[in-house]
Amino acid sequence: MENITFVRLRGNLVHHVQVVALLLGVGLFSSFGVAPSYHSSKIRTWSDHVIEVDKTSTSSVWDISGLWDPFFSQSNDHHINSIGIGIAPTDCDGDGVTCDKEEEDGTDPEDPCDFILAHQNCTPTSTWKNMDCDGDGVTNQKEKEDGTDPLDPCDLVVEHQNCTVPDSWKKMDCDGDGVTNEKEIEDGTDPFDPCDLVVEHQNCTVSNSWKNMDCDGDGVTNGKEKEDGTDPFDPCDFVWEHQNCTPSDAWKQLDCDGDGVTNGDEKEDGTDPLDPCDYNPDHVTLPQSGDYLSADCDGDGVTNEKEIEDGTDPLDPCDFVLEHQNCTPSDAWKQLDCDGDGVTNGDEKEDGTDPLDPCDYNPDHVTLPQSGDYLTADCDGDGVTNGDENEDGTDPNDACDFVLGSQTVDPSSTWNSSDCDGDGVTNGDEKEDGTDPLDPCDYNPDHVTLPQSGDYLTADCDGDGVTNGDENEDGTDPNDACDFVLGSQTVDPSSTWNSSDCDGDGVTNGDEKEDGTDPLDPCDYKPESVTLTPSADWEALDCDNDGNPNGTDPNPLKATAMDDSGSTPALTQVAINILENDDYLPNNDENNLGITTLSQIGGNALGTVTFDADTGLMTYTPVLSESNSTVTVIYQVCNVAVDPNVCASATVTIQVGANTLDAVDDTYVSDTNGGTISDSNVLDNDTLNGTPVTPGDVILTSTPTDELTINEDGSITVNPGTSEGTYTISYTICEAANPSNCDTATVTVEVTEGASNIIDAVDDAYNTDTNGGTISDSNVLNNDTLNGTPVGPGDIILTSTPTDELTINEDGTITVNPGIPEGTYTISYTICEAANPSNCDTATVTVEVTEGMTNVIDAVNDSFNADTTGGIISGSSVLDNDTLNGASITLEDVILNSTPTDELTINEDGSVSVNPGTAQGTYTITYTICETANMENCDTATVTVVVTEGMTNVIDAVDDAYTGDTTSGMITDSNVLDNDTLNGVPVTLADVILTSTPTDELTINEDGSVSVNSGTIAGTYTITYTICEATNLENCDTATVTVEVTEGMANVIDAVDDLYETDSHGGVIPGSNVLSNDTLNGEPVTLADVILTSSPTNVLTINPDGSVSVVSDTKDGTYTIEYTICEIANPDNCDTAIVTVVVEGISVNQLVTPNGDLKNDFLYIRGTDKIKSSTLKIFNRWGVAVYEGENYDNVRNVFDGRSRGRSSLGVNDYLPAGVYFYIFNYETDEGSFTDSEYIYISR
């Protein structure tokens, strides 16, 4: 290069002129050819401007600050290649920074390696480019290209080291990591990466910046890690408490301790990322690994890895598999009591018992209060938790030592199949029966399935003094205090037994024991010991067999007849009820258990004695010689229904009075004509012993008066001239055989004016009853006369004034007014001669009114035929023709009494039986029927039976009646043989030959069934059939079958009852349709087939489509509603059914199937809207809680098959399929409730 030196002019104008001139000159020069290249050199002038000519340049570059470059072209077509001339400031040392700039910067303009890189303002020289100013082994030029700092020995690309590296650089530590650059290159680490080194090769002092760095991102600076002796390049080797800077994101994503929770989450949780056992299980997001797997976080002796395999909780020292303990448990674990049995885990390990089983422990080693699972467990399986047993003071390890009322959990199957009280009924059956499994005397004998043993055998359940074991041996009932063997009493009877009366005799069992009588024998007792009311059974017995039940027997232990007495006038029959005071009962007494007979066995009575055993009456009629004397009759009464007969005797003493003489006053009418009064005789109404006297019986005496005389024959004479008036005369009659036996009477004679006709109204007497009405056959005129001749209605005028009780009617009859009480009443009447109304006479009518009988009973004689085979006479009933008030009677209307004869018996139902062996002949038997409502209203009839030679077998075909319809076919359940008999026993087809001739309408089939022939119209039809004894075809009988054929129904409609369940929300029950199970001719019905009707209730409605609706807010309960379906084609063809709806307000579904099919994916509890508060706990079969929640709502708070409790599974893990147990406690407006049951989880 050639140099051209310019004289520097002052001022910009001169400067520019010089430059332009120079450039013009050079430009002209270069345009004539290619100029040779020039090497540049620098010429320092006072102006510090140099023109540099570079002949090797292929472009014209003019480098001069502040100059215009007229020759510069960026077009590739117009290069000025001959020379490049630039005018630039001077760069004395070639480092690319002008001298002026270096002077400003204070750097050495002569030192190419002393400059400010940022101030390079010209092109460095080649020399400079090939230099290595910073001694890092990379030329300045290469560093320029790499963009590294040629003045910074630690700013380079190592791979571009292209010159010798000085030792100084090698000994340097560019990244400050304490390892020289040389060593880092040897190690293959990056000498510029302070975190890329071999720690063991640190051979120089680390820089402070390196110390403050955190190479491994663990939040602890390298310097701190050096102090702690941890590895600054291991993000998991640090002291947790020395974290003094923010950890890196990469570190946060790591899991140093392998517990599955990132370091970052552990930082947030406040747990130790270096401690595999310090973490929040809810934040596990990574697979657990490393130290965590080999650790035993809960100290239970099972590594976490094994617990994960087992599905147990590695953080729960009490959730592990005992057989999988593979490391030494911690001391803390040893001091725990996982199962709450009061024995530490450590002691259980030594004892060889299961620390997880609250029921497997050594009671001698209990050192802690029993708690937790132990208290809720039921070690002995008796249904009472250990905790409750501790409170009750019972033994939690003895399945038969518990308080029944404390049973709160289900007993074990072993307990259920055991028999604690030895009564032979398993505990489980006793639970179902509601009996006490601890009480050997409280059980259901029907449920005994085990041998009775133990306490049961030594107990005395019924308190009868005989142990159950002895009762079993004796074959008596150990639960019946009155069923025992007296000789087996070995223990003291109970107070209840002592105060009871087994045999019902009124003497307590205890008193019978003291008396030495048999408490089981109702007829063995001391009467003076009776303190109780005898039982009805005892009263129905007849201890002394006298026929009188104990209840009505004055002397139930001894048949007794008591003496009787009576009196009677001479020659007058007397009736004495001699059984009235005896133990024996008359035969007509329905209480008589026997047959009473009466007979005379002694006495001095000479008269006639009769006995009526039916009534208990003895009648006696004294003879004349016994008048005015005392006679005796000794009688014997027997019950002949027992063998031997039971008899007793007594004496009847009868006082016979003297003959009774009765002179009765007389009244006559006469007239002044005088003379003997026609038909007068004072003796006519006098009696001796009630019998009219005759002149030979008596001595008649009388003293005549001035007006009257009683003649010797008893007639009365009115002395002539006697004036009108009323006169009296007395007379006396004395017994001819006993003149001291006398009686006196007065005769009154009314003397009237004499007339042609004498009218005589005579007194009358009648009997009737309180029913009232006209007295039958009454007529007051019947005994009245006119001139001694009976009067006729035309002869007289009859007048009478009615009384309150009686009326004499115009025809002379007498009417008793209805409703009058019993008593004797009188009424007077007057008859006057029709032709002479002043000729009158008056008489008195006396009426005795007795209690009326409402009903007229009539027993009518009967006749029957029978044969010598005996037995009940077919079709016999003595009552068939008897009547009560003219109507046929039934056994409910009357009491039937009859004394059997040797040949005949009238049975209680009125049928007549011929005693077997009775010979041919005619026999009679009497019977009496008495009105049930009035036992005194009776009547007796006689039954006559003609017995002929009998046939061996009596065959009886009985008429039948059936109903069929026009659809024809066999009548259901029809069989003509059903009521037929052979010798009184139902016949079978094997016994008889059945024959019948079909009619147009009916057929009797071979099996006895009856068929209605096709086409038979509605109506009543008959058909006869004959049955003959198969072994004696001549022994036959015929009967008639009557069939009422009704219009048949073509279709059979069947409404079937329905059952639905729903909740109290009301509305249509889903899926309900009452028609779904109804049929028409066996086919399902549709609404097109039937008319559906139903009346809604207060709760239920059956809708027109058959669905069922429930009123909202219906209380829990069971409700019913009826509906009727009728065939549309035949609305008379109907059937009715009942729909039952069970409303359950709150209930727990018992199935969970968390398989995503939206059906039972969670546990559904019906009626949660009615619950104020609730808690739900779910346990697995080991009693471990797998879910615990409050205020279950079927929406947010639900059990969906995942663990939410103390479980071996992690939270959110789905539980295995199987059976679980829940306890649901809830409170409603109606109170607090507990529901507990099993649920099933299925996949």
UniProtKB/TrEMBL annotation:
Compartment(s): Secreted
Record flagged with keyword Transmembrane: yes
Database matches in InterPro entries: TSP3_bac
Transmembrane domains' residue ranges: 12-35
One family name in Pfam for this protein: TSP3_bac
Disordered: annotated segments: 256-279, 297-316, 336-527
Keyword tags: Calcium, Membrane, Secreted, Signal, Transmembrane, Transmembrane helix
Residue ranges with Polar residues bias: 405-419, 487-501
Keyword Ribonucleoprotein listed: no
Domain of life, per lineage: Bacteria
Principal cellular location given in the protein's record: secreted
Name recorded for this polypeptide: Gliding motility-associated C-terminal domain-containing protein
Organism ancestry: Bacteria, Pseudomonadati, Bacteroidota, Flavobacteriia, Flavobacteriales
